[in-house]
Amino acid sequence: MRTDTTIQDVFNRFLPEYAEVSNFSERQYLAVKCITSCRTAEMGAHVSECESCHNTYIHYNSCKNRHCPMCQSMDVDVWIDKQQENVLNTTYFHTVFTLPEEIYPLIYSNQQLLYDALYHSANKTLTELSKDPKYLGAQLGYICVLHTWGSKMNYHPHLHTIVLGGGLDKNNHWQDKNGKLFFPVKVMSAVFKKYYLEELKALHEAGKLEYHGSAEKLKNQYSFKELLNTLYSKEWIVYTKKAFNGAQSVIDYLGRYTHRIAISNNRIERIEGDQVIYKAKDYKNGGKMTPVSISGTEFIRRFLMHVLPKGFVKIRHYGLLSCRNKKEKMTLCRNLLGCEQYLSKLKDKTVAEKLLILYNKDICKCKYCGEPIHPFRVDGRYMLC
């Protein structure tokens, strides 16, 4: 059986019970208020009336919180349209940097610092290896996107990286490996581990780390040293998926991954008693989507684990795709490869114009008589974002 159950429904049903036994961080509380108020009268509305037939349209405002599943669609499409200007019609790779589960409690206690360390280490790894003539001898371009969840909303921080399949050498000549991956996976893993643990030790020695929950025992220097020994002894996992086939597949991938949240509404099947049933991948069964049942309070707890720190930049661009490089160097790459440049369809457009272009939805005309409609704003109780 399939219903239209949403995350908002789960929050409205189980939040009072969850609040009795759990505390919210400031960011989690804001996310909760946004999601429960999104597209309701509490957020205010835009009301439109047709000047001819006087039909009235009410559009409740979205909360615009990046953790809300109801607010991502147009933002994703607008972002993708902008990114297409810098996509080349050549090979791309999808590299994923993962961390050992032994460090998860410490990361959760220091999200801003240790998420940043994940980006820094991946960037240093790709920069070091790409400059080595043995592997490529050129400057790469790549986009890094943080995900903090597994399919069951368990805590699993990892970094998805979209890597350009070639780069510019010191003479500004294009270098690639004819569609083949240029870095051995084991070498990437070893270099990534080196850089991440160097930054972790530096943060610890500077006294910048905090220790909460199951990470509290790491306040003891011997326990922290034992953790480091475990992390050094383990083989870290960095893997690269099959190369993308040209620009369009990269663009499609960007839409699927960049603005994704811990769980979308279409994966929630129903609320049954005190349980929430949702679909998740069963990796023991080839990744097949199967129903999972957990309590409503546990669902909320898992969801809120993935609320990001205030001001945290989730999507970051490096190398040829960094802000200071891409305007000049991507133009050079495009010329060297003979690629056409995509021209944005949405740049400098109003919201109404974007809706018309993306979804063929004209919010300026009455759907009954086709005459112009005039909107006006009605403020709500909450203006949260």
Fold topology:
Layout: H1 7-21, H2 26-37, E1 45-50, E2 56-60, H3 73-83, E3 92-98, H4 104-109, H5 111-131, E4 141-149, E5 155-164, E6 166-168, E7 174-176, H6 185-205, H7 221-233, E8 238-244, H8 247-257, E9 268-272, E10 275-282, E11 288-295, H9 296-304, E12 315-319, H10 323-337, H11 351-359, E13 373-378
Antiparallel strand pairs: 1-2, 1-13, 3-5, 3-8, 4-5, 4-12, 6-7, 9-10, 10-11
Work out the strand percent: 15-25%
- Supply the CATH class of the largest domain: Alpha Beta
The global form is globular
Fraction of residues in H or I helices: 25-40%
CATH architecture of the largest domain: 3-Layer(aba) Sandwich
| Average pLDDT level | 90
SSE succession: HHEEHEHHEEEEHHEHEEEHEHHE
Structural class of the secondary structure composition?
Answer: alpha+beta
> Main beta sheet: strand number and arrangement?
5 strands, antiparallel
CATH-defined fold name of the largest domain: Replication Protein E1, Chain: A
Low-confidence parts: none
Q: Report the span from N to C terminus.
A: 36 Å
| C-alpha Rg (nearest Å) | 24 Å
Provide the spatial order of strands within the biggest beta sheet. Answer: 8-3-5-4-12
Would you mind describing this structure in some detail?
The chain has 385 residues and is α+β, with helices and mostly antiparallel strands. It has 2 domains: 7-67 and 352-378, no CATH class; 73-262 and 305-337, Replication Protein E1, Chain: A. Helices cover 37% and strands 21% of the residues. The protein has 11 helices and 13 strands. The protein has helices at residues 7-21, 26-37, 73-83, 104-109, 111-131, 185-205, 221-233, 247-257, 296-304, 323-337, 351-359, and strands spanning 45-50, 56-60, 92-98, 141-149, 155-164, 166-168, 174-176, 238-244, 268-272, 275-282, 288-295, 315-319, 373-378. The strands form 4 sheets. It has a 5-stranded antiparallel sheet with strand order 8-3-5-4-12. A 3-stranded antiparallel sheet has the order 2-1-13, with no helix packed on it. Helix 5 packs across helix 6 (185-205).
